Amino acid sequence: MEKKQDKTPKAGDVKKKLEALVGHRIEASGEELIRLVFAVGAFAFEDGNVTSRSIFFPSKTCSSGRLLDASGVSSTGTDGKRVFLLSDFVCFPEFTQLRDPVNVIATPRSESPFFVTMTHSLVNTPATDVQITVFAWDANGAPAPNVVFDWRCLVPTSEFA
Q1: How far apart are CA 8 and CA 98, in angstroms?
Q2: Does the predicted TM-score (pTM) go above 0.85?
């Protein structure tokens, strides 16, 4: 009697085949891919306050405003770097302008030691997006490819016409 082999593909194998098909890394577990749509970020526009300092007078002013608090998951490429726009993860309302100060943090998802550094810049005129660049480094200081990381960004917003 012939033994029937289990032909059900493993989730990890399916993920590798889908990545080959679409031509880029997919930041989702194999189990999440079963749904074909998966969450990569969350965001909220909330009331908050912005503190400003005067160049000429040693004082500060506080004003109320809207803040964008966004977070997501991504990963570095084969070169240990990932460049993305905040708009890749946020659905901006029409006529939203972003301004400084922009605060971005990232944390690697790993049991192995990795360091993460990043840069960011407001893009477009007026500033309607934030470009974030994340670099991952291994314990020896070499660029670390395919490091999955969680990130969070807080940025003041204003509406313009």
Answers
A1: 48
A2: no
